[in-house]
Amino acid sequence: MRLRALAGWLRIEGRAAVVAVPLVWLGLFFLLPFVVLAKIAVSESVIARPPYLPIWDWAEGVLNISLNFGNFQFLTEDPLYLLAYLGSLKMAAVSTVIALLIGYPMAYVIARAPSNRRNILLMLVVLPFWTSFLLRVYAWIGILKGNGLLNGLLMATGIIHEPLVILQTDFAVYLGIVYSYLPFMILPLYSTLVKLDEALLEASADLGARPFVTFVTVTLPLSVPGIIAGALLVFIPAVGEFVIPALLGGPKTLMIGSVLWNEFFSNRDWPVASAVAIVMLVVLVLPIGLLQRTQSEKEENA
Amino acid sequence: MRKMIAAGLAALASAGMAGAEEPVLNIYNWSDYIAPDTIPGFEKETGIKVNYDVFDSNEVVEAKMLTGSTNYDIVVPSLEFMARQAQAGVFQPIDKAALANYGNLDPKLMAIAATNDEGNTYGVPYMMYTIGIGYNRDKVAERLGSDTIDSWSALFDPEQAAKLQGCGIALLDSPSEITAAALNYLGLDPTSEKTEDLEAAMALLAKVRPYVRYFHSSQYINDLANGDICLTVGYSGDILQARNRATEAGQGVRVAYAIPKEGAQVGFDMLAIPSDAPHPENALKFIDYFLRPEVAAAVSDHVFYANVNARATPLVAAEVREDPGIYPAPEVMDKLYTARPHKQRYDRALTRAWTTLKTGQ
């Protein structure tokens, strides 16, 4: 009897422990930095160390709290910030769609491959991760630049006579983002597609559906969870991306990452930089939270 | 293990000795900015172990210094950055009495540095640089008819810039340096913070903006050396390093550096000691070591920047000392101007105008 009670207690404790790990992780690495950021965002910038005023001070037994929401108001006064947010969202959305169009067939082929070959194909998808992300972006500079591999090849074959300007354009940024994040699209797609029951496809064919109709009415709807997971994994980091546009992008590429960099480093205005970051987080978290809620409601209803 | 404990105890014992610092020095300097034997020579002579870290942007250093507790004993920000950080209480005054070789510094250049660091309180100049024009001789000759550039008009005259567009124009992604050059070209005060002056400079830049391929603060070194661009505004030493790389590569790319006749910005990178440096005495020892003529001369030979040590100049290799791009002639020196730390309001206006210039927004 006592043993059973102990087992039950252990089970509850065990569950709590399992839940606690991600909670502690989120608390330490998401919530705490967010609170620090929020604190700086409502402060005022000064020439000092650290370069912002404390939001509270304790003098002669009086606690003074001063919150400066002007930093958020400031973001609405200049259209630059809105344009940069929109620029980032557009860049991320287009990249996600391209990654989906390229990643879906790849994931499909891998999922349909004989099981002994699947692991090799999957490893090939993950293989680029063995090289540093930064080095791979630098490699694209070598490929795309005026005297680079691609232009050299095109000129040697006589297709073009003057080197094309590909580097420092939006096209190069799309290329860099899609290339870098493609594995994050393929892997979740693969894991939903590989679980797809082939009997469903056979049933569809037996009922007279052509392959395309089967794909649109059976395969595609069933892989929606994979599409959503992959799209989020590409879209979210792409919105805040700084390195790829900084290295491959041109001066016209306006993204929130570079605006943030300017606020923090060029203007030395940590409070405004923090406000930009918080708005970015809200812009990202709210729609994603809503999406997840509708998604889980759907699953519960199903 | 036992050895480690013994070593640890020894370290504790030496740290406990009255006033003596542990024999360690943490330096934070620009990348590619020292001679290969500078640090080993210092370590050998003093027995102090040097931890040498590098950075490639003033802004990054500033962010670190303003956060505090960096553990660095010497950092090397540019003068106008150091001036602002000193206002924030980041640095301690240099104890000149502890520097036996302080008198080697060129008083004329020290007076220029003092415009931003009153009484040369917080910093000792490490190297001096100018911000001028680097170009590809042959490509410029093809398009402008002369293989020598001596004026900012190669960039700021839209007609000439348009001719150079095809072979590639790059600008430092540094609004204050480029704006100062534009103001100087217009005959205005390059340190002006007036709104109408900023507008005039931006109007000038906007006219040549369509011909600029990119804005970046280090990419141009490789691109100039490889022939990917043919004109850039950049730091003297960087462009001269590009020139040397191009020569070494032997692909027939000839790079040159010009301090335009209208004048250019001169800057200093300063050895400074953070106020919370753990080893300030070792830092002073290193600064004094660097102030020896032969040590400073060896660094200049290696990095192609002029030092500010009057007694070092004769020891600098002739090809460096006689290069007017590194050691400007006295009449050119008179045309050079220094940057000043900006007020925060102006920085914001400048960054905003720069974003407009770059993105059109």
Written description of the protein model:
- The complex is a heterodimer of chains A (302) and B (361).
- With 302 residues, chain A is mainly α.
- Chain A has a domain of 191 residues: MetI-like (MetI-like fold), CATH 1.10.3720.
- Chain A is 74% helix and 3% strand.
- A two-stranded antiparallel ribbon of chain A has the order 1-2.
- In chain A, helix 1 packs antiparallel against helix 13 and helix 2 packs across helix 13.
- Helices cover 45% and strands 16% of the residues of chain B.
- Chain B has 17 helices and 11 strands.
- In chain B, strands 5, 6, 7, 8, 9 and 10 form a 6-stranded mixed β-sheet that branches. In chain B, strands 2-1-3 form a 3-stranded parallel β-sheet. A two-stranded antiparallel ribbon of chain B has the order 4-11.
- The interface between A and B is medium-sized, with 28 and 34 residues.
Describe the secondary-structure layout:
The complex is a heterodimer of chains A (302) and B (361).
Chain A: H1 2-41, E1 56-59, E2 62-65, H2 70-77, H3 79-112, H4 115-126, H5 133-144, H6 149-156, H7 170-193, H8 198-206, H9 211-222, H10 224-239, H11 243-248, H12 256-266, H13 270-301
Antiparallel strand pairs in A: 1-2
Chain B: H1 2-16, E1 24-30, H2 38-46, E2 49-55, H3 58-67, E3 74-75, H4 79-87, E4 91-92, H5 107-114, E5 124-136, H6 137-144, H7 153-156, H8 158-164, E6 169-171, H9 175-185, H10 195-208, E7 212-215, H11 219-226, E8 231-235, H12 236-249, E9 255-258, E10 265-271, E11 273-274, H13 280-290, H14 293-303, H15 318-321, H16 330-333, H17 344-359
Parallel strand pairs in B: 1-2, 1-3, 6-7, 6-8
Antiparallel strand pairs in B: 4-11, 5-8, 5-9, 5-10
